[in-house]
Amino acid sequence: LKNQLLADHGHNPLMKKVFDVYLCFLQKNQSETALKNVFIALRALIFKFPSTFYEGRADMCSALCYEILKYCNSKLSSIRTEASQLLYFLMRNNFDYTGKKSFVRTHLQVIISVSQLIADVVGIGGTRFQQSLSIINNCANSDRIIKHTTFPSDVKDLTKRIRTVLMATAQMKEHENDPEMLVDLQYSLAKSYASTPELRKTWLDSMARIHVKNGDLSEAAMCYVHVAALVAEYLTRKGMILKSYYNVSVFSL
Predict the structure, then answer these.
(1) Phi and psi at residue 107, in whole multiples of 5°?
(2) How remote is the C-alpha of 127 from its chain's centroid?
(3) Of 67, 160, 79, 174, which is closest to residue 116 (Cα–Cα)?
(4) Per-position pLDDT tens, the chain of length 253
(5) Is 188 inside a domain boundary?
(6) In terms of domains, do 140 and 107 share one?
(7) InterPro entries given for it (predicted)?
């Protein structure tokens, strides 16, 4: 069924069903042995069908990054190591797929997933997660084949950005009872995403969920208004809608 699975760069109903099975194994509680075998199977899937993750829509790459990153925070060191190595494999394979130019697709989806995990997973960003980031860096530094490419420095930049996001989030938690400091920290993080609409939208969505959880509905509404303006601005620049349809610019918010 390889040809059917590869149709439309892997974005077809059959591949979706196959991928959902793999994803289900990651989303349900498994034994340590079962998880290790799932990670091995995922390596084979990524290797055989790279276009599914690196071409066209990013939904499968995004879902996979999210689930792998959750295991990078596992209480079991062996699972953290396996998850970190699988995430590294996903990035490395992306780099090879582009002719050793970049791994922009995986880079972006990892940052987005981390931003989502901050709101969804308790304890993300602690010592265990930091150790996983170090494992990923070590993998890049010890990979002789790509030693003289930009890949190791790009991986270092990615883990640095993740740590920046986690640090800012930790500071927000520390100052959650200081509204003015909290607003400043939130603004700084959102501003750091200004050049990447997908990341800025992800952070605003995370902020909105936190506000809803705390009962701050007006603040959540403002986040969603900002998201709507961001999407409208993006679609206008792509020529998909006319600016006359709306009167607000995302840069004025």
Answers:
(1) -55, -50
(2) 19
(3) 67
(4) 888 988 888 899 999 999 999 999 999 999 999 999 999 999 999 999 999 999 988 999 999 999 999 999 999 999 999 999 999 999 999 999 999 999 989 998 998 888 778 766 656 778 899 999 999 999 999 999 998 899 999 999 999 888 887 887 777 777 767 766 766 676 677 666 666 777 788 778 877 877 787 788 998 899 899 889 888 888 888 776 655 544 544 444 4
(5) no
(6) yes
(7) ARM-type_fold, DOCK, DOCK_C_lobe_A, DOCKER_dom, DOCKER_Lobe_A
